[in-house]
Amino acid sequence: MSANRNIKTITKRELAAYFTSPVAYVFIVIFLLLSGFFTFYIGNFFERGEASLVRPFFDWHPWFYLFLVPAAGMRLWAEERRVGTIELLLTMPITAWQAIVGKFLASWLFLGVALVLTFPVVITVNYLGSPDNGVIFAGYVGSWLMAGAYLAIASLTSAMTRNQVVSFILSVMGCLFLILCGFPPVINFLEGVASRGLVDFVTAFSFITHFEGFQKGVLDSRDVIFFLSVIGFALFGTGVILRSHRAG
Amino acid sequence: MIKVENLCKVFGTKRAVDGINFSVERGEVLGFLGPNGAGKSTSMRMITGFIPPTSGRITVGGHDVVAEPIAAKRLIGYLPENAPAYTDMTVYGFLNFAAEIRGLSGDDRKQAVHRVVELCFLENVLHQSVETLSKGYRHRTCFAQSIIHDPEVLILDEPTDGLDPNQKHEVRQIIRRMGEKKAIIFSTHILEEVDAVCSRAIIIDRGHVVANGTPAELRQKSELAGAVTVRVSGTAGNAIASKMNNVSGVKRTSIIKEDGKSATVRAFPKAAGTNGDFARAIAQALTGLNIEELHTEEGRLDEVFRSITMPDTAKEAAK
Fold this sequence. Notes:
heterodimer, A: 248 residues, mainly alpha, 14 helices, 0% strand, B: 319 residues, alpha/beta, four-stranded antiparallel sheet, 12 helices, elongated
């Protein structure tokens, strides 16, 4: 399949580009420091006295990702457009869709690497007690899927502009909306002013609501489909935006 | 190989390209001339499939660029304006990527990269990051990318822009050599390049093709083409001019230079001929004068370019 080969070639290039620039290492270090700090200090990992990663570790992920994933994804298309390499890329014998997917996969794999590097916390919890490793595994899968959804939104906003900062701000706003519509204080407020049906409708779009299931160790196909469809929709939107730029 | 029919591109209310027609065959090097903003780059972007045309049809090697973009793009090598390249890669990595995405693998890829590195003199910077390259090297890196798959069609947007004279010469040599087997379109502002490289040239102005022909044919459009310039010593310029004006074929004369010793006068013919009749007639009319020099002018491309592409208001002012 030449489509798969094209996607692989682009993914390989993008991944290499991540790791030749210091940005990748800075990103990983910040991510690991933050997750360590929040798990052990703010999350009171030791004081809790339970062999679980749900509250102290995974609970913070939607909030880390809010800033870190747009930072990792802001350059995806904005940089191509600024430097002009988009003109090279899209005149190669590949479809725009292959380029979009290839670039997305590279960043998603990169986020996966960062996530895998948090493994010491898993070792710690296993050393101190006997947690349910199935739940932890489900949490990781959910976290990675959620990161993909954030990233797809970052890809969408990155295609809108040739300025990385603008792209970053736009995607933080978009992701913030998708978090807040499931954030308990916001839900409580909505329940006071809106009908039950509307509240359910809004919370159905929330990353937090859908991430919750994974944290409990449940791999619910509805949650998986939710994240995958956010990814699919946002990547489709990326394609539409790129095409409209070229059409002038 | 390349056929462009009735090509139009509208940006908002501006018609950037407005009904362009031309074709390029294998073995031809077509020069794309025109002032800035004439629609050269836009046309090239449409031919390479980067932006879709508003209307019209482009085929490359028989493949419609809009309907079968992948098949058409496979045949094309493209050097965009300003020669963009991934700054976060080394030259070697970048060329490898270009070869890979063009479907080359294994030994073929190694050979292809080796070939263009040699052709574009990139050995010295092969493992250097693209970001640290000088403009000339970066340009040649992007050029190398465009020829890595030995394409049948080459589209080059200002391939010699920003190069020093030696590099310009090298790139022209490469283009001319490749032009024997490929169909090449390249745009330029440098008119001497057209003479050096092109087998045919098109002048575009405000979205229209305003001239299309071999460099020699274009030069014929110049008022200067076929004019005879004479330097005579010991006779006043006015006297020479009036003798010239008696010749039947003369449209007008002008005194180019006059000092105490000699005068240089030019006679413009009514119709440009190439067989020397006009020059002989002038020489006859000046028999007995002390002629030091007499020659027939070739047309000048820059003059043709200016007379065709200058806005009407500027033309009025120039008169």
